[in-house]
Amino acid sequence: MPLGSNYAYALSIDYRDDIEDPVYLHKGLQRLIPGTSIKVLGYTKTNGEAFSINLIIENESRDIALHVRPQLPQHYIIRNSKFQGVWGKPETASALPFNLKRASYFFIQILVTERRFLIGVNGIHFCKFYHRAVYRDIETIEVKGDLEDISVERTKVAYYPARLPQTRPINIRVEGSLNSDNTLTSTDVDMDEIINIPKEWLKISLPTRTISAPLPRRAVTAFKLPFVGSIPKGSFINGRILKIEGQMKLLPQSFLINIQKGCSVWPHPKIALHLRADFSLQNAGVVGRATLLRSAYVDGQWIVGKRSYINTDLHPGKAFSVCILSAKKSFQIYINHSLISELLFHCDPRIIDTIYIQGDVKLWDVALIEETLFQSINMKTLSQMTVLTVVFDVDFKVPDSSYDQWISMNGLHGRLAQQSFGSTT
């Protein structure tokens, strides 16, 4: 099922769940509170079609507060509820990859928060489901379908998702010092007047893939997305660069980079820089042009960010290099060696220890270049080098302060993205 599918698809959904016998049933759940985690582990049968997890309110109609049903051949997960015998509107869209298979073990985690359920699959946050009933009334968990070897665990957790070994943060490579002949340190110049660009950036080559010739660089393999990387706390400071290289997919919809503290989805992490390029339907036919969002999440809320309609030079099917410089007062964002934007610091960059990347790209390399010396470039010269055109640049306020909204909306069609981020201040 394609990403971004709407509710019209509900007409073809078969709720066979009503006639299936439970393979696991537990009544008398203790009172659910925010932070309650329910983990379901099991094994999918070789010819399995689907299975479901139901959180049930034991009233006269035996209402289902949350119904989670992975459809294995179709590669999507239905989320729904049922009250007085009537199913509600199903939710099926997710920007995250479907990673459940037949004849394999799985791990699904359901976290209760005050406003929604968060649902993780095999150690990765997959989607959310807003409460349609009072979650404190849930008494029973029921598992049905083509499963074996089921076990369920109910615990109180301090963070979500619970990661598996294969989904724990990857240690990002830290490259050594770069030498430059004619350099000035950050104390030698006024960063308000001079933009400092590492001389070595001119030597960063874009990776290319061909069948007939070997790669000019070391062997490159694509990271699995979403990518969660770890850097030493305090290492992404003035003069250091986060370098991200990869290739855009042929029909890109969006591309997201979060530079943040911690790798949890709940509690909400502090995000020093949220950078997102949306290639929405309104931009169809304009190659490389996108709506570029820059924001941050600090002190329990999203700041008023910036949104620009801009030529990003991110072309379908083409290689790219994104470099984010931690300057004196801001993050400076370069795509293919051209400065396109910046975001002033809204928190101390020394707290950063995690890089989160997601979207319609093949990710080949992520590295932190440390102790970089600078070649100073005058702003006038820089403006001549930069060929990107900003069509508009406006402030915007994220209407919902939930981290999972940013995550789950990434990758959906521009029509859906506009519904979430259409308001400006």
Description of the molecule:
This protein has 425 residues and is mainly beta. The protein has 3 helices and 28 strands. A hairpin with a 5-residue loop joins β3 (51-57) and β4 (63-71). The longest helix has 8 residues, at 414-421. The radius of gyration is 23 Å and the shape is elongated. The two termini are 35 Å apart.
**SS element count, helices:** 3
The average pLDDT value, as a whole number, equals 78
Strand tally? 28
The parts where pLDDT drops under 50 for at least 5 residues are 1-12, 178-217, 372-392, 400-425
Structural class assignment:
mainly beta
Strand content: 35-45%
Fraction of residues in helix: under 10%
Q: What integer value in Å does the Rg equal?
A: 23 Å
Span of the ends, CA to CA: 35 Å
Q: How would you sum up the major sheet?
A: 9 strands, mixed
Label the overall shape.
Answer: elongated
Protein name: Galectin
InterPro entries: ConA-like_dom_sf, Galectin-like, Galectin_CRD
Organism: Glossina fuscipes
GO molecular function: carbohydrate binding; galactoside binding
